[in-house]
Design a protein that fits this description.
Low-confidence stretches: 1-31, 195-202
Distance between the termini: 26 Å
Mean pLDDT: 83
Structural class: mainly beta
Strand order of the largest sheet: 1-2-4-5-6-7-9-10
Length: about 325
């Protein structure tokens, strides 16, 4: 399995193929994955840890939500961390300057998820917002019990308690003046549709046709890579080996992974993190010759008894 995975990865590295796949995934795949909403609520501690509390937020309540799609590739990542940008945030804060809560929002929110530290996982937020018409940059650093985040990707997790070890800093981008606030009490939770909010709840299994490829290894040692699109997948000569490779979500943590095409079990060659898009998973399967001539063949992925959506593939 490993040698063939290496062959597949090499083929995918062809520049033209990479450009097509990147374009397709950026435009389509994340939109099919489920939303994960990070919601934080609580009360800022008083007095401020440092700085002049320009908006008189110390001792007042807050609530924010940040929405991200589970299939979104990170904009930057390392072995145990990933950063996501241009996310949507909405929320409200109470200020001693105004009698009613202030609505805040931004479409330029960034989050970083980090694991691997034996003492804590990290959820870090950065967002530019306007408060009573003044632009400020807000950065929050939340340390959570180790294991809260399944890995450094967008995942649901159960409610965790916020407290004094967590900080929120808001700064004037023009002057650099900043205020650091602690959190007296609060919670942070990541949920997916349906109200599931436990750490054991996996991301729903999704299979994407966008970016899918048919890879043929010929008897003479050459190979070809073709996008699965308008034309049927050519199974070639009896000596050829044809592999279908799909992007997916909810695969990497699975222990039992199966795929069926037109009701036939097919051999899974690889199931795990995608090489080029760390925010997505990848599944490679060998196509049996018994599928030659099938049209609108249903492809279904099963991960630990969870069945994915169906995609359809034509074969000639």
């Amino acid at each position: 399995m490993v040698p063939f995975k290496t062959l597949v990865s090499t083929a995918i590295a062809i520049a033209a193929s990479c450009l097509i796949v990147a374009k397709d995934l950026a435009a389509a795949s994340p939109a099919q994955a489920p939303n994960v909403t990070y919601t934080a609520t609580g009360v800022f501690a008083t007095p401020p840890t440092s700085g002049s509390d320009l908006f008189q937020l110390a001792g007042t309540p807050f609530s924010i939500s940040v929405v991200a799609r589970a299939g979104t590739p990170p904009t930057d990542h390392g072995p145990h961390w990933a950063t996501y940008t241009k996310l949507k945030m909405t929320g409200s804060v109470s200020s001693g300057l105004e009698p009613t809560p202030l609505a805040i929002s931004s479409a330029l929110t960034s989050i970083e998820l980090a694991t691997g530290n034996p003492s804590f996982d990290v959820f870090e937020l950065f967002v530019p917002v306007y408060v009573i018409g003044i632009e400020v940059n807000v950065q929050a650093n939340v340390q959570m019990p180790p294991g809260t985040i399944a890995n450094a990707l967008i995942h649901p997790f159960a409610s965790v308690v916020l407290g004094p070890s967590n900080t929120v800093v808001y700064a004037d981008p023009t002057t650099g003046n900043s205020t650091t606030l602690g959190i007296a009490r609060g919670t942070l939770v990541a949920t997916i549709p349906g109200g599931q909010d436990t750490a054991e709840t996996p991301v729903s299994v999704q299979l994407y046709k966008e970016g899918a490829r048919a890879i043929t290894a010929y008897a003479d040692g050459t190979r070809s890579v073709r996008s699965i699109g308008a034309t049927p997948v050519d199974l070639g000569a009896s000596s050829d080996m044809v592999v279908l490779e799909f992007y997916a979500s909810g695969v990497r943590d699975g222990s039992e992974i199966h795929m069926q095409i037109a009701g036939h079990d097919v051999r899974v060659l690889y199931a795990g993190p995608a090489d080029q898009f760390p925010g997505l998973d990848e599944v490679s399967v060998e196509v049996p010759r018994t599928l030659a001539g099938w049209r609108d063949a249903d492809v279904a992925l099963t991960v630990d008894s969870q069945i994915s959506n169906l995609v359809r593939v034509d074969f000639q």
